[in-house]
Amino acid sequence: MKGFPLHIGNIISKFQPLAREILNVLFPGFCPVCNIPVLSPQFLCENCTAALPPMPENYCLHCGMATGQPMLGCGSCLLVEDRPDRVYFPFLYQEPLNHLVVQYKFSDRTEWARHLGELAMERVGPLLVWEDLELVVPVPLHPLRLLWRGYNQAALLAGAMAGKLHKPLVTNALHRIKMTQPQTKLDQRARQTNVRNAFVANQTVVAGRTVLMVDDVFTTGSTVWSATQALKEGGAQRVVVCCLTRVAH
Ligand SMILES: [Zn+2]
Ligand SMILES: [Zn+2]
User: Fold this and answer.
1) Looking at the domain assignment, is residue 44 inside a domain?
2) CATH code at 100?
3) Beta-strand runs (E) in the chain
4) Cα–Cα nearest to 85, from 224, 234, 247, 245
5) Tens digit of pLDDT for each residue in 110-146?
6) How far is the CA of 69 from the centre of ligand 2 (A)?
7) Which ligand places an atom closest to the C-alpha of 73?
């Protein structure tokens, strides 16, 4: 009987993948958009994955405005010094993704961060590897809002993206020092005023570095621009932005 437990262990480990497959078929997950069964590790069904709204091909590389033709930057942001060096948007904020993002952000669907991060990286990961990124930094929440919501949706997303990019996630690079109103209730001008000087960067972390800053939704860009300004004032060499979705405008 010598070695018997080891032998049993070998048999179990041999059949583990099969057992996992059987459990997967018996207890599948469900596509959060159309609710049909999907097998792990799939998040969305194939139809819903294919329906994810891609970004238009031509947009300003700094502010994300649709330009209709290939160009490096649009007239309104090329003269701004502390602009993002490059912005990436894996998806447009349209159906079915907009509903997923709202649930992710406001209904504690924190486990979706990994899936959303993976979907984003499938779209823009091959482009981001050319950016020589050194750290991944989420757009922070104010500590009081973090306390109220319980999680920072941008930080979870940034963590998922950092894992895929094999870059460090750094959550103390940028701090939100101003408690701002939710941007959704404000027009463009009010948004800019609302988030002006809302952030401060940790110089010892960002000085001389190329930073990937991550957020979930890009509407007018006021938040991202204000945070970029703080990173550049802190000495960041380059600020590359990746927002999961951008509102069409
Ligand atoms: Zn589906
Ligand atoms: Zn622009």
Assistant:
1) no
2) 3.40.50
3) 29-30, 37-38, 86-88, 91-92, 135-138, 174-176, 199-201, 210-218, 238-246
4) 224
5) 999 999 999 999 999 999 999 999 999 999 999 998 9
6) 13
7) 2
Read off the pLDDT of each residue in 17-25 and give the average, rounded to a whole number: 66
162 vs 104: CA distance, rounded Å: 19
For the chain, count helices (H), then strands (E). Answer: 9, 9
Single-letter residue type at 23: L
- pLDDT tens readout for residues 57-112: 788 888 888 888 777 788 888 778 788 999 999 999 999 999 999 999 888 899 99
Distance from the alpha carbon of residue 215 to the mean position of ligand 1, in angstroms? 25
Q: Where in the sequence is the domain holding 185, given as residue range(s)?
A: 54-246
Distance 51 CA to ligand 1 centre (A): 9
On whether residue 194 sits in a domain, the answer given is yes
| Residue 60: inside a domain | yes
pLDDT tens string 181-213: 776 666 776 777 777 789 999 999 999 999 999
Q: Does residue 23 form part of some domain?
A: no
Nearest-angstrom CA–CA distance, 229 and 213: 12
95 Cα: distance to centroid of ligand 1 (angstroms) = 12
Q: What is the pTM of this model?
A: 0.85
Count of domains forming the chain: 1
